[in-house]
Amino acid sequence: MYPRSKAVEPVASNTGVALVSVTLPQSLSENARIGARVYEAKCLVCHGPNAEGQDGVAPPLVHKIYEPSHHGDEAFQRAVSQGVRAHHWRFGDMPPVQGLSRADVAMIISYVRELQIANGIR
User: Is the distance from CB of 12 to CB of 102 less than 8 angstroms?
Assistant: First the structure.
């Protein structure tokens, strides 16, 4: 579950197990490569490798819920800067992530969007 969560507790049967299988793109743009490094430093602990999510911890970002038409780039920016209350998943509230600029988050978004495209999410 996200750290410091106060929302509904998740049902954790296989805590830490990947929630989706992510197909990696053959290559990433320069921005996405930068985003992958920032993601690994700040997001991987909760959202898992390649944004696949972790059972009992945090949701996958490579999921149709996070397609651009439902959760645009600004939703990711706000989630990082302000945190977000649980609304699609039972992982609890996501706290703000400290130490990331809007530019850092834009690079993470590039990485996540390229992963999504490689997995048929547009």
Answer: no
Radius of gyration of the chain (CA): 13
Question: How far is the C-alpha of 84 from the C-alpha of 68, rounded, in Å?
Answer: 17
| Whole-angstrom distance, CA of residue 73 vs CA of residue 80 | 11
- The tokens for 58 are 């945090």
Could you say which DSSP state residue 53 is in?
Answer: -
Distance CA 5, CA 93 (A): 5
Q: What confidence score (pLDDT) does residue 84 get? A: 96
- Whether residue 17 contacts residue 54, with contact meaning beta carbons closer than 8 Å, is answered with yes
Q: Specify the pLDDT at position 14.
A: 77
- Note the pLDDT of residue 16: 86
